[in-house]
Amino acid sequence: MFAKCVLSALLLLICANPVSTYTHLYTGSISRRGAVKSVAPLLLPFLPPPAALADGVALTMTNYVDKEGKEFALRIPTSFYVLRRKDKGDLPDKNGNGRRGATIFTAGNMASASVIAVERFPVKSLLDEAGIASGGDLTTFGGIGIGAEKLAELLNLRRERERNNSKARTLVVKGSPVLEESEGTLKFQLRSDIDVQKPELLLEQEGVSELVRFTDAKAVLKRGEMYVIYAGALQQYQKSEGEALREAVSSFVVLGG
């Protein structure tokens, strides 16, 4: 009974923040705690080994339509867990802030820490936080009046402030932001370099000596609200999950007029 309870608790921890839980195993903050050492063997039977995640087999995709808020739709891997925020305190308020930041949807693979997340917040809040005048037309990218590179940087900075992750340095990949005004979208890519304090353990278990995460993103402007989808995977899982994550991003649409 105790083992079952502990396992359930750890699974909840990973669901809440799979990336943080995964990287902590190699950055030292969780692995130093004896409790996790005792729980890890219990979790292993439920997670596929790294080799099974990187065998190059294409993931099966399925359509996901937001039935809670009827706000968006996208395609996600059928094997990913799905969590749609619906409790009042978990959903972002009128300024795009909540217990979970601006996140309204999360899907992911607990074993590889690959994650798809959707955020929603007012464009005005984004500009106000950056100290940029927000008195113009905020329903189009042209009305916002900020170039693709600058806007992608503002979105990344806002996301990093919410995540408050001091173990990773995330930057917009130079040249990746592309603004498509006719479609009302901004596409860009992020690269996160994660501090590793135990490279020998990482090399032994994952076959790599550094943790690098690539995230594809797309921002959609709708009715003065910014919807941003982020889909990221560690470099060693890009071969097995990268294509599916890029499909999730490209398929993402905001519903309604």
Commentary on this structure:
The protein is of the alpha+beta class. 34% of the residues lie in helices and 28% in strands. It has nine helices and eleven strands. Strands 3, 4, 5, 6, 7, 8, 9 and 10 form an eight-stranded antiparallel β-sheet that branches. Strands 1-2-11 form a three-stranded antiparallel β-sheet. α1 (2-16) crosses α2 and α1 crosses α3. It starts with a helix and ends with a strand.
SSE map:
Elements: H1 2-16, H2 18-27, H3 34-43, H4 50-53, E1 61-65, E2 72-77, E3 81-84, E4 103-109, E5 114-122, H5 123-129, H6 141-144, H7 148-163, E6 168-172, E7 178-180, E8 185-194, H8 199-206, E9 211-222, E10 225-234, H9 238-251, E11 253-254
Antiparallel strand pairs: 1-2, 2-11, 3-4, 4-5, 5-10, 6-8, 7-8, 8-9, 9-10
Q: Determine the structural class based on helices, strands and strand pairing.
A: alpha+beta
User: How many strands?
Assistant: 11
Spans with pLDDT under 50 lasting ≥5 residues?
A: 1-54
Query: Would you tell me the overall average pLDDT?
Result: 79
The end-to-end span amounts to: 51 Å
Secondary-structure element order, N to C:
HHHHEEEEEHHHEEEHEEHE
Reported for the largest beta sheet, the result is: 8 strands, antiparallel
Proportion of residues in helical segments = 25-40%
Radius of gyration: 19 Å
Strand content: 25-35%
Brief description of this entry?
The chain has helices at residues 2-16, 18-27, 34-43, 50-53, 123-129, 141-144, 148-163, 199-206, 238-251; strands at 61-65, 72-77, 81-84, 103-109, 114-122, 168-172, 178-180, 185-194, 211-222, 225-234, 253-254. The longest helix is centred in the middle third of the chain and has 16 residues, at 148-163.
